[in-house]
Amino acid sequence: MKGSHELLAEEIYPKFEDCQVPIVLSCSEYFSLYGAVYLKSLLAHSSPNNFYDILIFTKDLTPRTEKDLEAILQNRPNISIRFVDIKPYIAKYQLKTHSHFGVESYFRLLMPYILNQYDYACYSDCDMVLKRDIAELTKIDIGDAYLGGCLDSVIIGAINDPHDRSFGADCSWNDYCQGVLGMTDPYRYLNSGVLIFNLSRFRKEFAVEYLLEFVQEKKFYLLDQDALNALCSEDIIVIDHAWNMTNDNGGHKIPYIRKAPEEICNSYFDARLNPATVHYADKFKPWKNPNEDLGHEFWYFARDTLQYEKILSRMSAEMMERLSQSLPSLAVRVVEPLLGIKGEWKRFIKHKSVWLFPYGSKRRERIKYIYRSLRK
Amino acid sequence: MKIESIVWCTQPCHTPDSAIISWQTNESGPFSFCQIEDDETNYYSKCEQLQILYKAWKEGIQADYLCMQEETVYFSHSTEAVSGMQYPCASQEALNHLVSWDDEILPPWSSFGQAIVPAPVDTRHMGFDTVLDYFTATTCLPQSAITEMKKVLECHATESLYYLNQSLLYPHQIFGFPQDILRQYVQWLFPLLEKIYHNMDTTHFSKEQHKAMLYFSNLLFGAFVHTHFSNQTAIGKKMFYCKWIQFEKSAPIFNYMPAFCTNNIAVTLSSSDYFAPYAAATIQSILDHASPENNYDIFILSKDMTEKNKVSFAAMVKEEGNVSIRIIDVSSLIPAQPLREEHHFTIESYFRMMLAYVLPNHDKVVHCDCDLIWQKDIAELYRIDIGDSLMGAVIDPIYAGLIYQNDFWKNYNTSILHIEKDMPYYNTGVMILNLSLFRRLYSFPYVLHQASIGNYVFCDQDLLNVLCADKIFTISQKWNVVAGATQGNLDTIKMGRKDIYKEYLLAQDTPYVIHYADKNKPWKQESCRKGYVFWETARKTPFYEQILFRMSHDILQEAAKDRGYRSFAKETVV
Q: Considering the entire predicted model, what is its pTM?
């Protein structure tokens, strides 16, 4: 099916002749602090013999932040970083969002129609650090398959759990994958954190409007990850688990991984011994609480960035937010306003209190004592 | 009469004292009569526990009487144990007390050809109507495998279905069977297991699910016992219920070898999981001053160290380097009765007392607290020859002054600690321990007993001073300098012996170890003296940001408490 991919804005061409596979990331202004750490780890493991054509899809990065991110890559001649403003594409296609998924979820799907001059691309989330040269990933040949990616061993563990009731009393992950996603083999469910896309095949077979309709119309729990699995699971290449190794996020992931088929479970633990990436997938991030599993990998690179203190400062600030969101105890909520009363009202209450607490009485002394100690 | 009693273990661990227990089995070790060929396709190769029974089936049974138990499940012969109850840890003490195995126990049963089986439990007390419901809900096996099992039973062992559909459950496969009953059991069990195995689809089985045959054999054991017992067959008439108990975990036998063959500098610390970041700073300071000619064999004794922190500690050392860090779980050695915890002496400080028994292959270690920073190569301290002393330590200058300050301490010193006038009292923050002599002089039960009855103000520090009295080698004050001595402390020290005071002042100038001994810790108190030494070192560890996070969190929590923000104030700090 011919796709309707018009030329929007200006075309993006490969920067290097010797490197036709770009590395695509998506990053918001908020996330730029952590994207900086990712880029630092990329630089640390880069080789002067390889080329890195980095494209950052964004809707709100400021020029100042773009400069800061560029600076991390130290102007190396073999590394190029370009920023692609997605806003015009979003405006054109009117994308809906729901719950905690922002428009960033759609960037992956728009990629084949923005990067018309590329045949393949590597997409990577920013909430991870690299432990190997990412150029190796760009060199993996997925042939004619739609996608190359790593199995999501956590979800596969849930699929393999006979007692899983994640979707309700009668619906497990297995039922969801087979029923809603239509996967004939749920044990090949990919995680979308690190993917190699066959852009030309996407352009050939799916019109961009069809793709976006498909995602928005069906009830996908994990939005674009599920959509990609639903569309492409028949023809995917599974790559080394080390490229998308999740940490034990919140302590919840490894129990699920242990329920996965033995081979997949073993491949995860092998990857853990020698990971290519450490992916902090899910909501417990090491920049919110450094005590996270493998959090020290993130902080090792963070310390070397100019954004280090900002990350620390935000960590404290978010802690403060949690404090202000938690309610003071009932006693405080009731008593504090009362203690703050001054002026007319105070005189009025004092006057009226004589009836219950006569001057010179023990009761009055007692209530005065309580009042004063509360004020302290 | 050849009686064999096997305890199935997954690691070398304590078992009840008994002459009859002829061997223990474990995953890697060969059994004395079971040598299984390495055949990947056999289902029993994935569940070693079945191998003994499998061998008995294939090759016949040599023993006249076979008793099988597990490292955490035993028949109990103690009047104090409650049947079916779960107890915390299978320490030697607990085993002797609650399992109370006696060599007199098995022979009567065996000579009368009687079988002992575990007393059953009612599944309805656990919320399940039938044994099958319980099995389906608690096992990790997929429904397809359970359906296959039912099909096989329907064809070949219909009487077992009665067991599945009622509520009396035999939860563990522990038993004592004479030869004839054992033979009947295995000859009935394995043909069924083989049929189930061949019909099952194991393509997507997880590691746990691959133990399916073990789970099915546990279930079928119950069916075997139930069928014979309830129908009072010839076998059933010989069966007797026996009380049984379960432990949460077994107590490992400690057998750590030195990590390096030559120049092995053994160092130990004790730390809780909460204290791990600060222990990491201590270890980092050891690494900073380490010499490449020496090999550092570091142990951390802990009762609750999480996997996450173990990984972070491992990240501090390079592979193939000259440093090894190992974490020892000593929770099985902690006595049931609580030990006195006072001031800053928590249960972790008592781990010092366990060192001689936890490291049976080490003769000498340097032990230090984890709220201190090293400024010198720890190998220099290790190499100090303490001769025939039990321990080498630094004289506590503050205590030396305390005994002159008031009568309470003077009396305490003489009557409780039995330290003669002018004999020193030692601080155990940094010490060299002569483990081989310790083992010779004191047994672990004795040491624990002394710890529990002692009415010591400074807990295990006092106990060590008492146990090692007259056998303590004095080392220079520089090896344990308390940072941030207040004026009050200095005044106390001045009241003590002059030589101790002089040495203390000299040591303050060039400390080899800075010990943040007081409540005034640098990670809590910004004004802690010499705190910058701690921070310089902490910055190099993987725990640095966690320490900063905690510091902010502590400050906010204090503020929250003051302002009545109860839910935030109660949040546990990680």
A: 0.85
